[in-house]
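Hi R.,

Here's the chain you asked about this morning:
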Amino acid sequence: MRELIPTGSLRGMLLPPTYGRHVTDSTAFTVLSVEIWSTGLVVNIQLASDNEPEPVIILQDHFGTEYSLRRSANIGSRNLQVFTPSVPPGTRSLTVRSADEAHPRPVVTFAVPLMAVPDSIPETDDGGYPSPPELRRPA
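And here is the predicted structure, written out as tokens:
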């Protein structure tokens, strides 16, 4: 199971703002969360029951980044799908789309917070206090 988890550091977790449920004649699943790692993304999906087929999903952001499915695993009625690359800096939204039909449709869209987490902690002389967060103007 450890080989399923991306290398690098965990930068955040996205929780759906709405109930991310998708139901069609061929599949039924709920998107529970997306983990943002420095090297990729892990989509956590609840299937309708054990032994359900793996849902076919597509990830999209407003930059048009090409996300590729690298690994997937079912654990009972839970499905984990690992995609690369990670979200690029400045990404504001990430949409999970179902691709089990001729025309993929959105399942849930996440707001992506500003990612200001470095891969390594720089040496500082600030007495151990964190630096102020980087701020950006709203769109």
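One quick note: The chain has no helices and nine strands.

Cheers,
M.
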